[in-house]
Amino acid sequence: MTHTEAAIDSKVSVEYGAGEMLSLSDVDRDADVYVTRPRNTPLGVSERHALLKVATENGTVEIELNGETLDAVADALQHIQEFHQSD
Questions:
Q1: Per the count of CB atoms within 10 A, which of 13, 26, 28, 51 is most buried?
Q2: What is the pLDDT of residue 64?
Q3: At a CB cut-off of 8 Å and minimum separation 6, what does 58 contact?
């Protein structure tokens, strides 16, 4: 069971590759971005702490974040936010 922390309307650009001979791209697609967390506290840093889900009419991508990767993403977003606040 999960709890949705945020649901955000966004635009996405996706590129698919299948070896050296084939690549497809889909740009400027309307998407919903969801940030969810487990209802129960993870028992360890290696367990899932959050899930980022990007859903379009053509498909869905899910990015599972454990404690370590969640910290790294949060730090990166904080640095970006601080950079833009200094403008």
A1: 51
A2: 95
A3: 26, 29
Q: Give the integer Cα–Cα distance in Å for 1 and 69.
A: 21
Domain that holds residue 23: 2-85
Lookup: tokens for 35? 């940030």
Cα dihedral 13/18/19/24 (nearest 10): -40
Q: Which residue has the tokens 């599972």?
A: 64
Site of tokens 């370590």: 68
Q: What is the pLDDT of residues 14-66, one digit of tens each?
A: 777 888 888 877 777 889 999 999 999 888 999 999 999 998 888 888 999 99
3-class secondary-structure state, position 68: helix
- 73-83 pLDDT, tens per residue? 999 999 999 99
pLDDT of amino acid 26: 76
The count of structural domains within the chain is 1
